[in-house]
Write a structure and sequence with these properties.
The protein is mostly helical and 275 residues long. It has one domain. It is built from nine helices and no strands. The longest helix has 28 residues.
Length: 275
């Protein structure tokens, strides 16, 4: 309650104590991975195959519309939330690619830059709210921190995927499997009793290079370790899959969060809540 009163006093409208983030269950990770792949494919298609300047401008406009829709929604709703995630996936990819394609900066530089932005966001968030638990997103200020973190995870993850695939010359498929292996680390750590909040964010960051690397593997030409299906084809397939899953979530309601803030993972036996 004190946090709610503080937010109101500082001009941050509270969301009435209603969580604004989906319940974290297996389907959450499936949709998240697909949005990362979709974001990579759509961004590459618009920027590389259509027009990079028009693409970035259009991506920014649609991103603003989607995130505004999410912020104006008083509590969690399937379509606004996952539409915002999807557009963050597209625009986050563009933000990372602009630093490399337009500004000519190495992927290592962009990865470090967005990692620093993410760390600063987490530090400011924790210092202000004393928690990074996504199921504590019940005030406007926490929601701002949350979406800033999400944006930077997408941008950093995009840069990491390209760094491994191109700069380190591992190729897109090998990079994808490396990140699949890495994401097992926070899963095992959580099972062994590590902080669910910490392991959630590590896994959340790693979903981005996994989805992006697989999307690039299918969309990129064969001469750069891709399958050559084209960004347009991969975009269409991933967009259809994402929309289909969002429809399933919306109709079933299984993605609705609990009424009160909780841990982002189900608690292992004997583990206490982490805030």
């Amino acid at each position: 309650m004190r946090a709610l009163h503080q937010d109101q006093g500082l001009g941050f409208q509270a969301s009435g104590g209603a969580p604004k983030v989906a319940a974290v269950k297996p389907y959450f990770w499936v949709v998240k991975l697909l949005t990362t792949a979709m974001g990579e494919a759509v961004s590459d298609f618009v920027v590389l195959d259509v027009n990079k300047y028009l693409g970035v401008a259009l991506g920014f406009v649609v991103f603003v519309v989607a995130i505004t829709w999410q912020f104006r929604t008083p509590q969690y709703r399937t379509w606004p939330y996952w539409t915002a995630v999807s557009m963050v996936a597209v625009f986050g990819t563009m933000a990372a690619d602009v630093m490399h394609v337009v500004l000519g900066l190495p992927y290592m530089v962009s990865a470090v830059f967005y990692a620093a932005c993410l760390i600063v966001t987490f530090l400011a968030w924790y210092r202000t709210e004393r928690t990074l638990d996504i199921h504590s997103i019940v005030t406007r200020r926490r929601e701002v921190f949350y979406w800033l973190a999400v944006i930077f995870t997408f941008a950093m993850g995009t840069a990491l995927g390209d760094l491994f695939a191109t700069t380190f010359h591992l190729g897109y498929l090998a990079s994808a499997f490396i990140f699949v292996g890495l994401i097992c680390v926070p899963l095992v750590a959580w099972r062994l009793g590590a902080s669910p909040v910490l392991t959630f964010w590590i896994a959340y960051i790693l979903t981005r290079p996994i989805g992006a690397s697989f999307a690039d593997f299918f969309g990129m030409p064969k001469n750069v370790s891709g399958m050559g299906f084209g960004h347009g084809a991969v975009s269409v397939v991933t967009v259809i899959l994402v929309i289909a899953l969002i429809i399933c979530l919306s109709r079933s309601g299984i993605d609705r969060p609990e009424a009160t803030p909780s841990s982002p993972y189900p608690q292992p036996r004997g583990a206490g809540a982490v805030g």
